[in-house]
């Protein structure tokens, strides 16, 4: 199952084509949206008869959805009050049609700029239909005050936002500069991109997507450039067999470790085992191999003669390289000149299924010409700071336009990319790019990225295509983070515990998908 995440512009195109080419009017689309919202509201809120409902209707189509919903609430016996942000005569087209219907039913309607919001009694239900997904500019002072009033009401009322909480940028999820904090957001047809991005998480409450009649062929002909990683990814995992042997599950090599950083390769190796790899080896400078003697499950290859990386380390590695199914390059590698020289020699003839992480990314950013040597199956897993090094910007700038930077890098370099962080992004060589649904604070610790590289590396070693391995790895890692929150609600877990939760996360993930099927 693909979960589309259209941008506001893409959603507007679907709406327009549905009306112009398919012939479904905007009036009907609003009616469908209002009925979809009503269905979800009855399920999540409960009986609507005799409740008090205040409906905030904005100047555009989102306001039209609100007018139509107000009519349905009134029909079900709710005491409804509509507050519209434009004068009634200023509404045109479809919103005007639904406003006239509401007025003809005798629903009280007041002009919002003239309505006193400071001394309202308790309201059972607040409907937010002020601004839709097309909103992207800074809110006016008046609009900011309306949203603050809704949030004040929301301390004692149930708040429903239609399509998107008003004030959020539909593309980035950012408040502009404030936004409604909803208990429930019913978004129409597909979840918009901004709703899946971290800034929106504290505003949307429970997110429910409801179809409103956009024809499938229109969405297929004009696909969204972003999708969400979906639970059904678990079905792509290789099946286990009663007669399988360790070689069937792949042999992963972890290249990394340096003085003071020997733990990072072990975290990647541990995660690889916990996610199903049959064999895992760590290759590091020869003097460091003694550190891994207390981990009997891991094999080691000593490179060079001392404890530091240098170009000659490749001579020790080269005879072994082709027996590995995949390589994770970078955890704990260090940033020395010797490590850079080893990386340069490795890239003269790299293993095709190599994931580059951590210090390998730092060194690649210092020598961007080496990126030309990466093959199309390479996977890079930067966090925002490492991504910023490639573009010469700050991590904050990366986070403000994560999807744009991920697309530019992966498409331009023809590599597979995981831009880590809350709502991690997975990008291949072309659209769509995928967004993780998880924002898990328990993953925000040192070593978490090493665990992720081990998961993806194990999936590469088991023969999955690189982009698929990256998508499954990100979802699996994120799912483990949500389970950790049950045991460590205020964080406090170690990265080793992330790795050790991977099998349980897979079991619960499969169970969740099975329940949905049945």
Residues in helix, %? 25-40%
- Strand proportion, as a percent range, falls in 5-15%
Radius of gyration: 26 Å
Q: What is the strand tally? A: 18
Major sheet = 11 strands, mixed
**Bulk shape:** elongated
Our count of helices gives 17
The strand line-up of the biggest sheet is: 1-9-18-17-16-15-14-13-10-11-12
- Uncertain runs are none
Give me the secondary-structure topology.
Elements: E1 3-4, H1 8-22, H2 26-44, E2 52-57, H3 61-75, E3 79-84, H4 93-104, E4 109-111, E5 125-129, H5 141-153, E6 158-162, E7 184-188, E8 206-210, H6 216-221, E9 226-228, E10 251-255, H7 263-274, E11 279-285, E12 299-303, H8 313-317, E13 326-329, H9 337-346, E14 354-356, H10 359-366, E15 379-380, H11 384-391, H12 395-400, H13 402-413, E16 416-419, E17 425-427, E18 433-435, H14 448-461, H15 466-487, H16 495-500, H17 502-517
Helix pairs in contact: 2-3, 2-4, 3-4, 7-14, 10-11, 14-15, 15-17
Write out key terms for the chains shown:
7-stranded parallel sheet; 518 residues; single chain; elongated; 11-stranded mixed sheet; alpha/beta
